[in-house]
Amino acid sequence: MPSTNIPSTSAAIAPELAAAAAAVAPTTRERQGSFGGSTRVKVLKPFNTANIKILLLENVNETAVSAMRAQGYQVETHAKALAEDVLIEKIRDVHCVGIRSKTKLTKKVLDAAEKLGVIGCFCINQVDLEVAAQKGIAVFNSPFSNSRSVAELVIAEIVLLSRQLGDRNSEMHQGIWSKVSANCFEIRGKTLGIVGYGHIGSQLSVLAESMGMRVFFHDVVPLMPLGTSKQVNSLDELLEMSDFVTLHVPETEDTKNMIGEHELNRMKQGSFLINASRGTIVQIPALAKALRSGHLGGAAVDVFPKEPAANGKFFESELVGCPNTLLTPHIGGSTEEAQSMIGVEVSQALIKFINNGTSIGAVNFPEVDLRAIRDEENSIRLCYTHMNVPGVLLRITNILAEHNVDKQFSDSKGKIAYLMADISDVTPEQIQEIYQRVSETPTNIVTRVLY
Ligand SMILES: NC(=O)c1ccc[n+]([C@@H]2O[C@H](COP(=O)([O-])OP(=O)(O)OC[C@H]3O[C@@H](n4cnc5c(N)ncnc54)[C@H](O)[C@@H]3O)[C@@H](O)[C@H]2O)c1
């Protein structure tokens, strides 16, 4: 078992620890206590931030690069994905890796990573999450940084569909002048039905209302509507009343094939369907049939059950050639703003995990956080990733029994559990002993001590 992924005070001997503790003193900051008094909050750091090695691949956004450099980490960046053998060599020595869509972190690659503690996915998730968790490696992404970009695309599509702009545009590119107004509409006063009122659905609701649309939504949970939108009781009810139906649900067992022939038949004659959620939500043959028969007035589809892995002439679908049908290559969230926001959000999660042990938002890992440690000398934070088996907490309690545990929290996810404990009034020798005993427990995956 690796005793520690990201360097911690525990790796150091006592005199170094004392020196390092003195060095971090200026990084404390004032924080207003809940009762008005000001408390000195200790900014936790691993033993020496300059020892932390970060590998950022595939042109990860500059916002992330500069945030990580500002921490004093050693940051190595690459504009492209690395060939697997090069990646295996590079990943061996790093504590954190950031990837976008082209790098696959398979078991083979992760097995080579001797010090890796955390992974940032700045685009789609291409990590063997289970293997990563078993090695005590937390994986973070940023699923909601592009909500606004998707919502804006959908607004554009509502207008484009309503004016048949996709067809007019392709006719013009073929030299065909076809000036029509039949079945072209303003969107003002039309009804938008949103399926899934989460980050994207609710954002879209506000934008659509500001353009004069009436907004209704269906969600599996009762939600506070924004603006004057209203929740309806069933999907069928929403389908029957809407001029535009737009899908914003996650991919789950319940949402797979959610929109098929039955649901499309429920939709109004001449209405429009938009899917920028997941490709498996809509049954494509049924949609193609509804479009070709003229039952639907058009559709915009950004996501597909099978999507090409690379750019090029690889796209095939029954929707190709359907009337008034906008097809886009999964670009709903692909904007410069979203990339920049993702860079900020993912890098903050990585920094918090490295410096503070916080795993909130991790996709493969128990989510644990503790309120800030007070700026007291000799306070430490123990971060213990371990196997989720009976008896572990008793063993840890016995190790910590003689110390002052200010606060602790533990959570589990599948076979992995994670405990964070803040301990005060400990000498460097005691810290070394705590680290030694905890990291030698048979259930240890990774032990870190932060100060
Ligand atoms: N096209 C793109 O590029 C792009 C970009 C970002 C997100 N997405 C996709 O958009 C979808 C929505 O994303 P989000 O961030 O708004 O998610 P979210 O988790 O914030 O919201 C999803 C909502 O759907 C609801 N829901 C779940 N199951 C449902 C069901 N069976 N019926 C009705 N409602 C249901 C949930 O209660 C929740 O309110 C996801 O599938 C996501 O993968 C696509």
From TrEMBL:
Keyword Cell division in annotation: no
GO annotation (BP), single: L-serine biosynthetic process
Enzymatic reactions: (2R)-3-phosphoglycerate + NAD(+) = 3-phosphooxypyruvate + NADH + H(+)
Pfam families assigned: 2-Hacid_dh, 2-Hacid_dh_C
Record keywords: Amino-acid biosynthesis, NAD, Oxidoreductase, Serine biosynthesis
Domain ACT: 381-451
Pathway connected to this protein: Amino-acid biosynthesis; L-serine biosynthesis; L-serine from 3-phospho-D-glycerate: step 1/3
E.C. code: 1.1.1.95
Leading EC class: oxidoreductase
InterPro entries per UniProt: ACT-like_dom_sf, ACT_dom, D-2-hydroxyacid_DH, D-isomer_2_OHA_DH_cat_dom, D-isomer_DH_CS, D-isomer_DH_CS1, D-isomer_DH_NAD-bd, NAD(P)-bd_dom_sf
GO molecular function: (S)-2-hydroxyglutarate dehydrogenase activity; NAD binding; phosphoglycerate dehydrogenase activity
UniProt record similarity statement: Belongs to the D-isomer specific 2-hydroxyacid dehydrogenase family.
Protein name from the UniProt record: phosphoglycerate dehydrogenase
Naturally occurring in which organism (per UniProt): Podila minutissima
